[in-house]
Amino acid sequence: MSQSSTSCVDRHHHEFRTYNDSVDVISGWETVFGVYDSYFSKYYFDRFPTTPNDSLEYTPDFTVYFNDQYGITAKILPITLKEKPPQIAEYLFEMLSDCDSGYPIERSDGNEVTPQKMDSVVFVPDSYSSQFGNTLDTRFGRGDPDLDSNVILIRYGMDEERANYIFQRETSLEEEFREDELPNEESLNDTIGPKGGYQSYKLGTREFLRPKTKKPIYNSPPPESYLATYLWMKEFPTKLAQGDFLDWKKGQINKKKQISIDCQQLAKKLNKQSIVDGDLQTEWIIQTLEYLCTTGYAECSNGSYSVMYTGLVRDIDMSDDKDRSNEYQRATELAIKLIRRYCRFGEEADQSGQVSLEDF
Amino acid sequence: MHGFVDGSALDFGKKSWEDLEELISQQINQNARDKARYKTIISPDHPIDVIKDAVEHQSQSEITTTEEEGFYGVNLSRTIKRSDRNIEGSFALYQHKDSPIWTAVTGYSPDFFNRGLCWVFSQAEPNISDFFVDSNELKRVLRRIEEKLSAEILVSKAVVYSRSEEGTISFRTRPYKAVFSDEQLQNGYVDKLNFSVRRQGDEFFSGFISREGVTKVESGDPQMFRRYLLGAFVETVTEKLEILSQRDRDSSNDISEIEVEFESEVLNSPSDNKQLIEALSNLKKSTVTVYHDNPYAHVSLVDFVDGSNCDIYVTGSNSVSIVPGHKGSVNSLMRVANQVSKEFQEGGLTLRDAPDYSLTDFVA
Fold first, then answer.
1. ipTM of predicted assembly, 2 dp
2. Are A205 and B315 in contact (CB under 8 A)?
3. Which residue from A162, A317, A320 is facing B122, i.e. has the nearest CB?
4. Boundary of a domain, candidates A192, A214, A236
5. Which of A158, A192, A209 has its CB closest to that of B323?
């Protein structure tokens, strides 16, 4: 594999992991805020809030509705390779300003309301949290931007030894939750805030696995490799008939067998059945199928896509024949396999000017 | 009948289960080389319909069934394509009360047992499912027999697999408990045992038990073998089935979390996570996606046997959770749990309820 291809693999795998980490963080905080569910009749944690302004670089990653008096918007800032913290701060200011002028959030009955008081929680990676806190403090100090909402800065990182995400208030920005509406016995400020001595929260797989399994996608467009693995593991198999599995079992794997995908229908199904109350965009699915086309596992003809699911199954020993098992290579983990193929074929296409899959 | 006494599968007309067990008793006690071979399986639907349907799809295979008193008779003939060899024989199949657990028994040769009887069930996967009992469960099965019969159980042959070294076969005759305290079990598992159950020198029965549902009675009373050994086996499988059945998310969108708890802290480092991931990616007819491998692990797995999927999370230094997807068949969950048990570490299965948290629970 060429050097550029290696960096392509690293870059794509970094995006894959970063997105997954953000899903972990959001899922963990869905569990944290979930303690309020029983206190408020229309409590709702929305990981697909509407975009306040299409031209914005950032949109909130989730919102929490408690009642008509109090709500929260939240943003997870990335462990980024692309943008530097000052640029990230500018994007964040734009988003916060836009939300501050009245941002309706969803409640459990499906209606959207703008609570009287809204705070914004910003999760910033350990690596630049202190510098970032100072930047925010300076700018807010001079009223640029001048916000009604409090901005609560929480730094996050991984406790390598205990395998938990660790969250702690970044105190270089001294703004706290205005939690008058929240029950006294479940006070954020008494634990993670000043009254609690800024204790940290630890969130591990036990805390986030349930919301993550239900909703492994959030408001930001997922990297194509990430959505491709989700579709491959959980959605595409539902398009297969029992006869297909029987054929595979008999070793009759039809390499021409394809799964036809209607991107709009698939988006609808995902948002209704698989990721309930989801808001996956049809565009994300189209981009992912284009990605699979580059890997050679899908084809596009006149705007409709076919996935060659059996392409992968053919690489895997489906027989019960011990004598033949040596004929098969061990299956590679799917994300890396797709990324490597994308980088290999995508790069070759760039270099040779090939434009269609037929050329491969 | 079904290979007993006359060695062929002649139709004797209506026979009761008691008659069949009498035949089994005659055969195994008159000829020291003869054995009755049993295979226990899980079949939520009626297995006769399922195996007929599975064999219909196979060329050069024929199956006929009869309904007897309290059991079914199954005649099977097939030709193995590669060798052009014909396999022919019959077996009896009976249900354990109203459970989805059934046991087949034959007196035919090991060749028919493996390439006929077991082949039929493997063709019917995932509608008919294998199961596994781990070392602790095997020990529990034998302990139940020991307690109920106030008997002594001696193991004459034990096959123990090690994950770090070659597996070993021991021909030492010793009390069964000694097999389960073998040092190799710290990183391995008991695969199969030959044993005899006796009280003060009188033998109740002697036989064989394996972790994947194959048992044999070699001498003694087949009725006691069925009642005590298969009975204890079925109790153990029933407990496991309750944990693994109907755990997919189709009927409701609720999450089921099946926790595998290990006796020691086997997930303490990134290399431990790697070993677990390696074990999962070695599961036949499946593929995995690794979402995270260090310091915690999250793997998603799709099973090409029937399209089931699940997520597997490391939840602590001694626990892993398996979360079935919208499709998560018993067959698939059993395969995944068995794979973890064989290639990573044995652990007990439980259902973990959704926790009820307070903010103080999150404080580090």
1. 0.91
2. yes
3. A320
4. A214
5. A209
Sites in chain B below the pLDDT cut of 70? 1, 5-14, 250-251
Q: Which two tokens stand for residue A20?
A: 């997954």
Closest to B314 (Cβ–Cβ): which among A34, A160, A205?
A205
Answer whether residue A248 shows pLDDT above 90: no
The CATH number of the domain covering residues in B257-352: 3.30.310
Based on the fold, state whether residues A146 and A44 are members of the same structural domain. yes
Note the pLDDT tens digit of each residue in B102-153.
999 999 999 999 999 999 999 999 999 999 999 999 999 999 999 999 999 9
Rounded to two decimals, the pTM is: 0.92
Whether A235 and A207 share a structural domain: no
Classify residue A219: in a domain, yes or no. no
Q: Which domain, by its residues, includes A328? A: 224-359
Decide if A204 and B296 are in contact by the 8 Å CB cutoff: yes
Q: Which two tokens stand for residue B178?
A: 């000694």
Q: Which of A72, A124, A77, A78 is nearest to A99 (CA)?
A: A72
Determine how β-strand A70-76 pairs with β-strand A117-125: parallel
Torsion of CA A6, A12, A14, A16, to 10 degrees: -140
Q: State chain B's mean pLDDT as an integer.
A: 91
| Residue A142 distance to chain B (closest CA, Å) | 34
Per-residue confidence at A2, pLDDT binned at 50, 70, 90?
low
Give, in words, the CATH class of B17-123. alpha beta
Start-end of CATH 3.30.310 domains in chain B? 17-123, 257-352
